[in-house]
Amino acid sequence: AEPGELAGRHVLITAGGTREPLDPVRYLGNKSSGKQGVALAEAALAAGAQVTLIHAPLDVAPPATARLQPIETALELRAATLAAAATADVIIMAAAVADFRPATISTGKIKKRDHGEDPVITLVRNPDILVELVAHRSAQNQQQLIVGFAAETGDDEADARTYAQAKLRRKGCDLLVVNEVGPGESGSERVFGQDNNHVEILSLDGSSPVQSAGSKRQVADVVVHLIAQKLGKNSQ
Ligand code: C5P
């Protein structure tokens, strides 16, 4: 990113993996560290933006100059994000949102019974926040740029790209940042918690995909620069 290229812009970023409670002491979670989302917040701040960071628990410290809003569950993330979206010029959905949550939250700790039946956890779907953000893009803010993330695996690279293109169209966001997880590699080991990332950024407007590899901050700078370019074009 370049200094000042997002001056005067409000950028809303979500980061981290949501936690879906089962009982007062247990939750279903995922391996997201929040590092890529925090790097995006740092890159957007460096580019002069005002940043709201809505975040699930993180493995790294978020930047102190962002407006921080901690949340835990997907439903909390949804409420906070839809509220903050009203004034955002850019929304970056880097959070790993749980697709499902336990249908009920036990008020007491679920007990281990030596002779009873094994407990069964029933899951219900969480709303797709990214799809809602695209649907709710307000009439007075048609210029709002919405960015999604995806970690794709495929039998081969071409397969993964076709799948990612389909996801971009299905979600309707302007940009989709695709983590490249190749075949035969331990995908979750490669993406989650690491300090480096390798992405391909797909555009709904049909412009050529942009590749970026390096530290999560370097990748964030490329994403932020591309966002600034798209905003510039839209306002012409
Ligand atoms: O469909 P998939 O989970 O791969 O899509 C990932 C993108 O969608 C990410 O940007 C993620 O933040 C967002 N997402 C969401 N709400 C969900 C699930 C994913 O906004 N319930």
Automatic annotation (TrEMBL):
GO annotation, cellular component aspect: phosphopantothenoylcysteine decarboxylase complex
Domain of life the protein comes from: Bacteria
Enzyme Commission number, as recorded: 4.1.1.36, 6.3.2.5
Domain DNA/pantothenate metabolism flavoprotein C-terminal: 6-229
Residues involved in CTP binding: D99, K109, P127, D128, I129, L130, F149, K167, K171
GO molecular function: FMN binding; metal ion binding; phosphopantothenate--cysteine ligase activity; phosphopantothenoylcysteine decarboxylase activity
Known cofactor(s): Mg(2+); FMN
Free-text cofactor note: Binds 1 FMN per subunit.
Listed pathway(s): Cofactor biosynthesis; coenzyme A biosynthesis; CoA from (R)-pantothenate: step 2/5; Cofactor biosynthesis; coenzyme A biosynthesis; CoA from (R)-pantothenate: step 3/5
Ligase in keyword set: yes
Stretches the record annotates as Phosphopantothenate--cysteine ligase: 11-236
GO biological process terms, semicolon-separated: coenzyme A biosynthetic process; pantothenate catabolic process
Catalytic activity reported: (R)-4'-phosphopantothenate + L-cysteine + CTP = N-[(R)-4-phosphopantothenoyl]-L-cysteine + CMP + diphosphate + H(+); N-[(R)-4-phosphopantothenoyl]-L-cysteine + H(+) = (R)-4'-phosphopantetheine + CO2
Keyword tags: Decarboxylase, Flavoprotein, FMN, Ligase, Lyase, Magnesium, Metal-binding, Multifunctional enzyme
Function: Catalyzes two sequential steps in the biosynthesis of coenzyme A. In the first step cysteine is conjugated to 4'-phosphopantothenate to form 4-phosphopantothenoylcysteine. In the second step the latter compound is decarboxylated to form 4'-phosphopantotheine.
Family statement drawn from the similarity comment of this UniProt entry: In the C-terminal section; belongs to the PPC synthetase family.
Name by which UniProt lists this protein: Coenzyme A biosynthesis bifunctional protein CoaBC
Gene field: coaBC
